[in-house]
Structures are given as structure tokens and as C-alpha cells.
Amino acid sequence: MSPGIYHEMYPGADWQKSQQQAVESVCADPAAHVWIATEADSTAGFVAVKLHAESNTGEIYMVAVAPELQNRGIGGALTEFALRWMGGAGMSLALVKTGGDPGPAPARRTYEKAGFELLPIARYFRKL
User: Fold this and answer.
1) Which CA distances in Å does 86 have to 33, 35, 61, 79, 95?
2) Tell me: the pLDDT tens digits for 24-38?
3) In the Cβ-directed half-sphere of 115, how many Cα atoms lie within 13 Å?
4) Which residues contact 61 (CB under 8 A, 6 or more apart)?
5) DSSP 29-51
6) Residue 40: Cβ within 10 Å count
7) Range with the poorest average pLDDT among 17-21, 38-42, 45-49, 109-113
8) Beta strands at 32-39 and 42-52: parallel, antiparallel or unpaired
9) What's the pTM?
């Protein structure tokens, strides 16, 4: 998105601080189920899942892998774990959302490898 629209949506936002706040928020959310992947006694990544019983849908709300450990299958393993857990919890549909810009391209590849299908949705914004 253009810088003008970004700053309207996230006024004064520092993307790193915004991301940190998003991680802290989901990890503290009582509706979220969070699992951590470790490697050599260090945190390698995590996955957060929310269940939506009314639609029988499990949502992979956030998957994160430490930058230095990306492209090693950790995100895929976390995604597969979440899918198995959601199925075991009785969900019949899984959902994950991410951006369409270049930044989350690795995440989109992970989701596509896991069998997710893209639902093309167009959302337009214009700064006034």
C-alpha cells in the first residue's frame, strides 16, 4: 500500500513496534491457543490459533519464525501442527489471512504447500 494510506491506517506507526504489539496481543488473548517451536533451547517460532465454533472454523491467526531460522521448514511444521490440532478440536474448515505484497510471500508459499486455497478478495482504499 502507498505510504499515505499506510500512515492513515496506522498513524505514527513504526512497523516493528506495531508487529511487536500484535505478537504480544495475540499471545495474551485468552481466546488464542499458542504453541512455541524451539531449536537448541531457543525460541524458533510460534503459531497462534483461534477457534470459531459458530462457523466450525479454526483460524491460524499468526505464525512467526525467527528471521535467521526461516526457510528451514519451521513455519510449515507449525502450520501442520495447527491444522491437526484444529481437526482434533472438531473444526471442519481452516482459515489463514496474510498480505498480498512481497513481504509475506514466504508465508503464502507455506500456506499453499499446506493445501490452503486462495480466495481472491479485492479491498480498495483511497486517502481522502
Assistant:
1) 10, 13, 12, 11, 10
2) 999 999 999 999 999
3) 6
4) 26, 32, 48, 49, 50
5) -TTEEEEEEEETTEEEEEEEEEE
6) 5
7) 17-21
8) antiparallel
9) 0.85
d(Cα 41, Cα 38) in Å, to the nearest integer?
6
CA 48, CA 60: separation in Å to the nearest integer? 6
Q: What is the pLDDT of residues 81-113, one digit of tens each?
A: 999 999 999 999 999 999 887 888 889 999 999
- Residue closest to 77 by CA, chosen among 20, 38, 104, 123: 38
Torsion of CA 47, 51, 55, 59, to 10 degrees: -10
Torsion of CA 112, 9, 26, 43, to 10 degrees: 70
CB atoms within 10 A of CB 51: 18
Indicate the SS3 state at residue 93.
Answer: strand
Which of 62-87 are b and which e, b meaning 16 or more Cβ less than 10 Å from the residue's Cβ?
Answer: bbbbeeebbeeebbbbbbbebbebbe
Cell 491437526 sits on residue: 84
pLDDT over 70 (residue 1): no
With the C-alpha atoms ordered 53, 97, 61, 10, is the resulting torsion angle positive or negative?
negative
